[in-house]
Amino acid sequence: MSFFKNVFFKSGDDKNNDLSDWEIPFEAESEERKAYESWVDERELSSLMDALKREYGFYLTPGEEHAEWVDFLNVDGANGILIHTQKISHPVSNWLFVAEFMKDRALSWGYKLYSSTKMNTDSKNTPPLFRHYLKPPIKNMLETPIDQIFGNVTIELAETGTVKETLKIQIQHYSDRNYQEARNIEDLYYSLFNRD
Most C-beta atoms within 10 A of its C-beta, which of 11, 149, 179, 190? Predict the structure, then answer.
């Protein structure tokens, strides 16, 4: 049993991804943060990022089909990755750790964390939703055009009940003249996949 399961889940509890037990953000010295930092160094994360990189390559290749567990979103003004966690064959012990990793990657690009929230926890009938919202660092709004990097970043982990969780990272960029053109989304994906 992995370290985080020993810390956070009762013996014999098969629900190893019960999001209702988790709080965000992971405070610097919290048990959650320590478990996450230990997990980041495990092979599980590298395996998942390798799989995402491979599937993105299939997505970019005409005539190739990528796996059903991931969708690459590409609509006007927004891009992203949607992972259907119940369909993936790679073992991931805690999807909240993956969401935290994505948040940390965005912070490493210079983004600022605007909000981290856990919602829909008051009612037993409403599944929890974790959301991180990050904005590019804007030093001076008076100097235009503003460098938006990739645009605003939203990371959501939703427990949908019947189909378990979905994890989404979505990038929405500005298209008005006050902002520089958003950088190529492939740069963001490969930074995420390669963990650099």
Answer: 149
26-35 per-position pLDDT tens digit: 777 778 888 8
Q: How many CB atoms lie within 10 A of CB 119?
A: 13
Mean pLDDT value across residues 42-58: 92
DSSP letter (8 states) at residue 86: G
Global pTM value: 0.80
Helix (H, G, I), strand (E, B) or coil at 83: strand
Output DSSP code: residue 24.
S
pLDDT exceeds cutoff 70 at 183: yes
Residue 175: phi, psi to the nearest 5? -120, 5
Distance CA 62, CA 2 (A): 40
How far is the C-alpha of 136 from the C-alpha of 113, rounded, in Å?
A: 9
Domain parsing of the chain, residue ranges: 17-194
- From 193, 113, 100, select the one nearest 153 (Cα to Cα): 113
CB 3 within 8 A of CB 35: yes
Comparing CA positions, the residue from 191, 157, 155 lying closest to residue 22 is: 157
